[in-house]
Structures are given as structure tokens and as C-alpha cells.
Amino acid sequence: MRSLHVAAFVSLDGVMQAPGGPDEDRSGGFDSGGWTVPFHDPAAGEIIADYFRDVALLVGRRTYDIFAGYWPNQAGEPFADHLNAIPKYVATRSPGPLDWTNSQALGPDAVAAVRALKATPGPDLLTQGSSDLLSSLFASDVVDRITTLTFPVLLGRGKRLFEPDLTPAGLKLADSRTTGTGVVIARYERDGAVRTGSF
Questions:
Q1: CA angle, 171 as apex, 121 and 57 as ends, to 5°?
Q2: How far apart are CA 166 and CA 31, in angstroms?
Q3: What is the pLDDT of residues 139-190, one digit of tens each?
Q4: 96: domain range?
Q5: Is 197 a domain residue?
Q6: Domains held by the chain: number
Q7: CATH, residue 173
Q8: Virtual CA dihedral for 113, 119, 120, 121, nearest 10 degrees?
Q9: Distances 25 to 32, 38, 155, 169 between C-alpha atoms, Å
Q10: Residues 40-55: pLDDT tens digits?
Q11: CB neighbourhood size of 96 (10 A)
């Protein structure tokens, strides 16, 4: 049985818009691309690389196209070679080809395909970016772990990690650390239903 791990770069106000560079994703008029760069830290890079060990990548089409346009061109670099080799599952409605090595479309019902994948043997599934896909995954209650890398910046507008229609769930903090540049990395695991009380 596989688990589904969501790992996301987020601002303190919950924006997860593509962080890679100014022009990586300007959808919705977003003009703050590159917001993670000033906080780059080798220790965080090692932690991020560790997330990609023994996993299959699960992404939406926009994220896939960004990754597929970059990583195959970095062949010979160990992390790129690893990323190029692992399985990739893509939520897409586009008939366009998926040319990146070991890529496979999920089909017309991405959530049903993810449920089916989770019930089969194989590496755990890891998402990156893919805000539209994440909205469906959270709403369908199929996410097992969440890791947030929270950056000390307020972006105001952009894509959000959590949308209002997600399924409520209890979580427990499994691990946390802070980088030298102030990025808080926290890993949460499922912990049953939301518990309530009264003072």
C-alpha cells in the first residue's frame, strides 16, 4: 500500500505559487516569482532531495511541463538523473505527449487513478506544485502526509495550498526544523478526525 505525500513551498500567508523564477508561473497576474531564492540554504536542499528518494512523482500538467522543460536538460547531475529516472504520474486533460522519461497520464479521473495507485505495490507518491490537482486530492481525502516549507515572506495573492473545500482531518506534527535562513520545515501525518473541545 502506497502513501501520498504532499510537499509544498508556501509563504507565511499560505501562497504556494511557483517559486522558481520571475517568469516560471505568472498565471493570475502573479509577479513575485523567485520568492524562495533569497532563502536558499544547502541544508534545506538536502532535506528536499531526501523527499525524492524512493518515490514516484505525482503532478498536474502545468508543473509537469515546467519540470519536463528543465530536468532532462540537466542530465549528468545526480539529482537530475534520479528525477529523470523515477516514475511520473500526470493529471492532464491535454492530448499532448508526455515525453519525459517514465511518464504516464492518470486518465480522465485523476482522483480515482490515485486511489488505485495507492492500492498497488510500488514507491510512495510525492506531489510538487500542482495546486489544481492538490485541491482535488485534499477534497477527496486521499493525502496521508503533508510537508510544508514555510518561508518568512507575505505574498498577498497567488495560488493557495489549502482551498476551502478540503476534507477536514486531524494531523500530528511528526518532525520540524528551521533552516539558517528562517524557513520552517514541518512534516504532518494523518491523525484521525478533527477533535474539538471547550474551555
A1: 35
A2: 27
A3: 898 999 999 999 999 998 888 899 887 888 899 999 999 999 999 999 999 9
A4: 4-190
A5: no
A6: 1
A7: 3.40.430.10
A8: 130
A9: 9, 18, 14, 30
A10: 888 777 887 888 889 9
A11: 9
